[in-house]
Amino acid sequence: MVVRYSREKYGLNVHRFMYDWVLSWADSGVGAWALFFLALAESSFFPIPPDVLLIALVLGRKNKFILYASLCSIASIIGGLGGYGIGHLLWYAGSGYSPVAEFFFTYVPGFDEAAFLTVSQWYNQFSFWIVFTAGFTPIPFKVITITAGVASINLPMFMIASVISRSLRFFLVAGLIWKFGAPIRDFIDRRFNQLSILFVVLLVGGFVVIKYVL
Description:
The protein contains 11 helices and 2 strands; from the N terminus they run H-H-H-H-H-E-E-H-H-H-H-H-H. The chain is an all-alpha fold. It has one domain. The longest helix has 30 residues, at 183-212. The termini are far apart.
């Protein structure tokens, strides 16, 4: 049964309600569709990452982990392209921010003007690696996709980075659940952020070694 908002239970803790609401779709008959649309939305505006539903679905039907990881990856990549379009087409109006930009700054958790300006500066030097790192790690992907559109970074490069990073992330999560089951779930909840960042650091370090040492 899909969770419904209760003032007595959640009060002003809307983020917790949204987390429980997302998780409850795993027990519905349309969990796979819910995963697809959640991953699609998370890449451009929704605050809850699709990993929570992906984990729950794979735990329930481990034989479908490839299907769930594929749905999640494809939807997230499409959503990222939508975020790029928002930034490229709708972000500015005249000499300032558009109502769309103001809406994101005001109402979308994790997306504020400071984060937007910081990422905009990063794009001057590290376009591919910013998209890749955000796609694989806990950095809010929506900030990256929209800012990429505002900065008009190379679209094929953006798509390549999105495809690689999003697929790596979701297949890794689904694969761990498929292999180890419920015991790995708590480990992912507690340590995935640190492990994903470490993975990116090691990967970038490998490219640096290849370029400057070998």
